[in-house]
Specification:
Helices cover 40% and strands 18% of the residues. With 728 residues, it is an alpha+beta fold.
Length: 728
Amino acid sequence: MADRGVSGPKIAKLGRYEVVSELGKGAMGIVYLAKDPVIGRLVAIKTIRATGNDEDDTQEFRERFVREAQTAGILSHPNIVTIHDIGEDAETQTSFIAMEYIEGKNLKQLLGEKTKFAFEQISEMIAEIAEALDYAHRKGIIHRDVKPANVIITTDGKVKITDFGIAKIASSNLTTTGQFLGTPNYMSPEQVSGAPVDGRSDLFSLGVVLYELLTTKKPFQGDNLTAISYKIVHEDFTPPADIAADVPVDFNEIVARAMAKDPWNRFQRGKDLALALYQLKAQLEERKSEEDLGTMISTAAESIDTLKLGNLSSIAERGAPDPQETPAALPAVGEGSGSSAAAREGSGSFSKSGSGSFSKSGSRRSSGATVAAGPPPVGPPPLVTAAGATPPGPKKPALTMPMRPVTAQGVPKDSPKSKSRVGLYAGLAAVVAIALGIYFATRSSSPAPAPAGPAASVTAPAVPNAEAVGLQKSLAEGKRLFDEGQYEESLVILRGVLEHNPDNAPARQLADQAESAIRGRADQASKTAQIEASLESARKAFASKKWEVAKTHAGEVLALDTENADAIKLRDDSTTQIERAAAEKKKVEEKLAKIRAMPKTPLPVQKAEAQGPAAPPPVPAGTSKATLRLLFDSPIPEGHVMVAINDQILLRQPYNFKKKSGLFKSSSGSGTVSANIPVPNGPVTVKVWLSGPGISPAYATASASMLPAETRTLKVDYSGGHLGARVQ
């Protein structure tokens, strides 16, 4: 169902579907791409072939196939391939399932092509499959064959799981040697050992698929099926992060829990596994965002020369333009004929107040007295308070910004000392700018510090952390759900609390209680289901007069529930019937022993008729004795009939209705046994015995009053182990 096949169809139609091409072959049959002529929809048709040669087994397989496919057909989930139809082709007698056609590739193909998935994508894919399995499990359907070949990635990136219910059909359709269909690499320990399975078996198999996606290797490998099966049941696997160094270690715990040997140590529901994977996906995405941010900052830092201390000397040699110089001002300074060099160098001085402006001629005017140019003051600049005033202290000379010398043509002169100082200032400014950016970014995501000063001495009331408040609310919600008996929902919330705070003792205690309650509920449900099944089997066996079987099933119920009234009644009634049957059998055996001890009178053997009732031989003329005409339609092919009149054996009649169908073969049949038995006149007691291969001896009696020369019919019937006789 992954890619359209290129080979031509072997057959033209399957049922009403027109076969377009062959998509592939599997252990169970062939998959075709077909078209529904009614609505024009393309479907994928999977044929299922029965391997048994026995007609009864084949019919049973077909009935089971229809039943399981109908059950799987009720599933409707975005991550499950939909089953549209089931049927059987009349011409080829091939059973098939018509399902949704998906264009894409399965994980087995993608793994074979060495396709690399991001860890966030792997988490999301497996989480979606886990949700689909959880939906199916809640519907009472177990997949039993979760593996990469049954997980399809569509062309638009969606993930779907297919073949629900098919594995259960295949499990009864073994090869003639009794081997597995396929490989047990993805089977759970309980599947390998033949124990009953539930939804947790599917989660184990999904954990194996997750392991293979992370490492491209199977967790359990061996040279043959026996070695693989032994490892699945008894040996531990190597954690995925130890196999591949790039696999986040966070996957180890999830994979270990999904693939625990004991089902009770696994994720109990698919949604629990999905939740763990979604949380891990969010953590991986957050880490990736942080790494991307760090890369951006590093790249930006690499582009700023001043962050490289080794480049400071070259920056100092190159220098930087003075911010007070403009191309328009420089020529005007050189045009004054009476100006000295000192005047030219000091034409851009600042006033005491720090404010000033340029005149039209390019000279710097100040709003106050001008201070002559000179070397810059030594020491740090004055601190400025929040109100903008300079703190009290000794006054210092006003700062005059040094100007770069210019030539007579207005071209700035190079000053190595000035270049070095300006380059250093520019580098330090860039470092401070980046540090401030990181500081404010960090501060925006963390609580503001307490204000300094006298107010800081007053202790503010403690404000609960938002995360702690959320955990408390989650704990309260988990307890509420636990008290209401919603143990599964409570456990999911409590596990979320423990993920964030593993040392939370109340959450741990409540989670343990929830797990115990879930186990107890599951055990009780399993016990109840087993009781109902055994009771139903006991009732059916009792109705079929299989007393021993009924008593056995009733005992199974009482082993689980000693006070079950229905089981007690079935057990007692079955015991009564068993004792009654034993007593009757004993009487028959005693009578047979007496008869065998009687002297045997040779009688002519009458020939049994193989087909249809025929008229018995005519009664000899002139006889005064009455005649009983035996008529027995035997349902068994071979046996022996014996008739006694007034405790004297008058007829021993063996018969065999088997027919030869070959040199060494014979087929079963049925027929009618008939014979004429002369009997004395007057009251007679008739006793009839029937024995034969595979049946218990049966006995019946009848009585009649015979007139001289009268002919009457002795009708004998055999059904369900009981023999009946009546004189008509």
